[in-house]
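Case study 2.
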Amino acid sequence: MKAFFKALVLVPVALLIVLFSVANRAPVRVSFDPISRDLPVLAFDVPLFAVILAAIALGVLIGGCASWLTQSKHRKAARVNRREAEKLRGEAQSLRAAVPDSALPALTSRV
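Prediction:
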């Protein structure tokens, strides 16, 4: 069921990307030389769709890194809580092992 919904979303998105790429095949000049406009040292002729899709991919990558960095405090708190829960679980198991089986009914009847 999950795969069906994933396909239901991804197939139209992939179709839109393919249609966009076919419609925008014209080459554009991408220059990384801010000084020389007429004869740039570092310039490439690439299709327009490649420029736009690369910009989107770069934006997604930067956004993902930014959100990962901002959530570090939550990941640290989860690690601390997990360690504490494991410690308390182990302590409870050792206390259960220390109490004899004959004393368990008497302890539960008081509570």
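The beta strands are 27-31, 43-47.
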